[in-house]
Amino acid sequence: KQEVTQIPAALSVPEGENLVLNCSFTDSAIYNLQWFRQDPGKGLTSLLLIQSSQREQTSGRLNASLDKSSGRSTLYIAASQPGDSATYLCALESLQGSRLTFGEGTQLTVNP
Amino acid sequence: DARVTQTPRHKVTEMGQEVTMRCQPILGHNTVFWYRQTMMQGLELLAYFRNRAPLDDSGMPKDRFSAEMPDATLATLKIQPSEPRDSAVYFCASGLRGFYGYTFGSGTRLTVV
Hints:
The structure holds 2 protein chains of 2 kinds.
Chain A lengths: L3 E4 L2 E5 L4 E7 L4 E9 L5 E8 L4 E4 L2 E6 L4 E6 L8 E9 L5 E3 L3 E6 L1
Parallel strand pairs in A: 2-11
Antiparallel strand pairs in A: 1-3, 3-8, 4-5, 4-9, 6-7, 7-8, 9-10, 9-11
Chain B lengths: L4 E3 L2 E4 L5 E6 L6 E8 L3 E9 L2 E4 L8 E7 L2 E6 L8 E9 L2 E6 L3 E5 L1
Parallel strand pairs in B: 2-11
Antiparallel strand pairs in B: 1-3, 3-8, 4-5, 4-9, 5-6, 7-8, 9-10, 9-11
């Protein structure tokens, strides 16, 4: 059974700082890994998708990496802004059964 | 942009009543997930379908919850009878297995009083 862990659970940083969110998983038999953002009281918005054969994906100030051998993914946010404040979740789609398993999320606060 | 549409957005009901939540997946997507989110439990997988066939509903309380896909454009989640502990936000997501990731709907916020 896939287990996904996100560290830290919460993070508070000053505006402008570069930061890294971590996601670790126990089963490397995956199709892909997806990072989502969730604002309070809202749904999940997809940020980046990394296919199993890829090592990283970039979108604007966001860069996500995937290392299946170590069971880890990181989401790098450059030059953080108050608008980046949200909960960030990683999710893995398993090869067997295509179950989509989520981590508990990292709650990010960027202070002006 | 294509969207996953969930209805209703909000539902308040009395304990014991039947609740039906609906989801319209994105056209062409073959996989549909139902999740429940609470502050205490985070995101819980309730059930999911591929090509309208249920693959796994082990996350649902079987005695009161049921999930179906009567056709490719509609997925339903029913609770009968509802209980206060069912109060949560219920999300539907759709996608193509292994490709492009999954898109989530805006959720149905259920309150059972």
